[in-house]
Amino acid sequence: MLLEIDNLVCNYGRIRALHGVSLSVEEGELVALVGANGAGKTTLLRCISGVQPAGGGAIRFAGDDIIAMAPERRVRLGIAQAPEHRQVFGPLSVTDNLLLGGYTRSRAEVLQDMEKAFAMFPDLKQRRRQAAGTLSGGQQQMLAISRALMARPRLLLLDEPSMGLAPALVAEVFDAITALRDAGVTILLVEQNAFAALSVAKRGYVIETGRIALADTGAALLEDDSVKSAYLGI
Amino acid sequence: MSSQFLQFLISGITVGATYALVGLGFSIVYNSSQVINFAQGEFVMIGGMATVFLMAAGAPMPLAIALAVLLAVVIGFALGKFAIEPARGAPVVSIIIITIGASIFLRGAAMLVWDRNLHHMPAFSGSDPIDIGGAALLPQSVWVVGGMVIIVAALQVFFSHARIGKAMLATAFNPLAAQLVGISTRGMLLLSFALAAGIGAIAGILIAPITLTYAGVGIMLGLKGFSAAIVGGLGNPMGAVAGGLVVGIAEAMTAGYISSAYKDAVAFLIILAVLLIRPSGLFGRRESERV
Fold first, then answer.
1. What is the pLDDT of residues B29-70, one digit of tens each?
2. Pairing relationship of beta strands A3-12 and A15-25 according to DSSP bridges
3. Which of A4, A84, A176, B110 is most buried per CB count within 10 Å?
4. Residues A105, A213 share a domain
């Protein structure tokens, strides 16, 4: 098991955001975590990356207990995240954003990977000298994903990659995610767009108010009546 | 241009270059931590005083200067490590108060370790004025302005070409994203304190042959550097340089044409005017980001 989360608790001040969440991701899997706004999806990813302290439970990555590890060390272990709202370094160029994505690796390796990212997202190559903040929302999302890939992660965390994008761009983002999945990248995908996320995922979890409510294969969750009525609007 | 005006301009640019360097220190620390480090002036003092006392102990000037800068860098790092870092997560105002405490401590320590007297440092390359259109230019002024230009150019290269420099910028723009790509924001904080301390010390060493140095020299220089950073737009290093020159020249003109009694008030009048008219500073960063 690459990522194993056991009974994870997390508090925001006095508010408990996660009430004992357990979840696992195997090497090579695409796992989707779906749920409503405020259910704790982003909090969970923040805890995995270490930018939000956990209040109890365990997070194991490739067998190591990482719950108290500094965020930068987790990146070195192989956990990279494309965060919610993309969070690109706006005033820096596309190239610089990507270079910093590979901050934990040698520059030469990063430059090689950058060519791969440019091959995947030609738009970024065209605009590589442009300030990241001037890109469109879709391009910024591609950049955020590429930036995370520059760390050559063993586990890629994607937080709401389709948020705020036009339908055509949503499809483009999901095409990219599918391509990464098929290339063997292990992905934990957090989405409000449950239909799209569960369609591409091997397994899925449904999170409700800080607890895992359902866990099954992506296909089975798409057929589940409670998921259909609550998240798919069917 | 009258020779008198030229004279005031020269002295304004000289002292302004010092303010610019001190202001740079404020901006660098602010960028990495949103903290206004009111101990910045003390590094200016440490630079000058340490050089004077090391020279008195027999060290040749270049060695004394190098050691003094190193001392300031170490103290800056220690300030970040032992006073600021443990308070991370505390409100920014609390951290600013810590820096005020640190500045009082450093000033007191300097009075104990060294003394309370005024000290003269010899000019780097003689003190025979060069005549420019009837105005006297001290060779040390050339050192001050030249030193400022070199440091600014070096920082420009550091921030636009070195990966660690870009990481500092990235941390300033978005600390969360910086952490997510593996940048240690604590490391950047310590680096910024060390860097700002070193630059402050160099400023103190460069200006000491012109203005004399003493344990309390950091108070006013620190405040003027702070004015420079505010006038230029806090967090914008190049703005701090421009702000320093504006404050320095305005001061020199006031002292020359009105009265030197009002000299120190000018910097603060400029701050007030800038904050009223352009609260983000003359060169304040304009957010232009699509979301």
1. 998 888 899 999 999 999 999 999 999 999 999 999 999 999
2. antiparallel
3. B110
4. no
Residues A69 and A121 in one domain: no
In a domain, A129, yes or no: yes
Q: What is the pLDDT of residue B126?
A: 84
* pLDDT tens digits along B134-153: 888 999 999 999 999 999 99
Q: Is B81 on the interface with A (CB under 8 A)?
A: no
Of A49, A133, A147, the CB nearest to B289: A133
> Last residue of a domain, which of A135, A152, A169?
A152
Report CB contact under 8 Å: B181, A100: yes
Chain B residues with CB under 8 Å of A83 CB are 176-177, 180
Q: What are the structural domain ranges in chain B?
A: 3-118+162-277
Q: What total number of domains does chain A contain?
A: 2
Shortest CB distance from A92 goes to which of B169, B182, B183?
Answer: B169
Q: Does B1 touch chain A (CB under 8 A)?
A: no
The string of pLDDT tens digits covering residues B90-146 is: 888 999 999 999 999 999 999 999 999 999 999 999 888 998 888 889 999 999 999
* Cβ atoms of residues B283 and B239 within 8 Å: yes
Give the range of the structural domain holding residue A15, as residue numbers without chain letter.
Answer: 3-78+155-232
Quote the ipTM score: 0.92
Report the C-alpha gap between A120 and B58 in whole angstroms.
Answer: 64
CB A58 within 8 Å of CB A232: no
Does A11 fall in a domain?
Answer: yes
Task: Name the residue among B169, B182, B287 with its Cβ closest to that of A72.
Answer: B182
CA-nearest residue to A71 within chain B is B179
- Number of CB atoms found within 10 A of residue A14's CB: 5
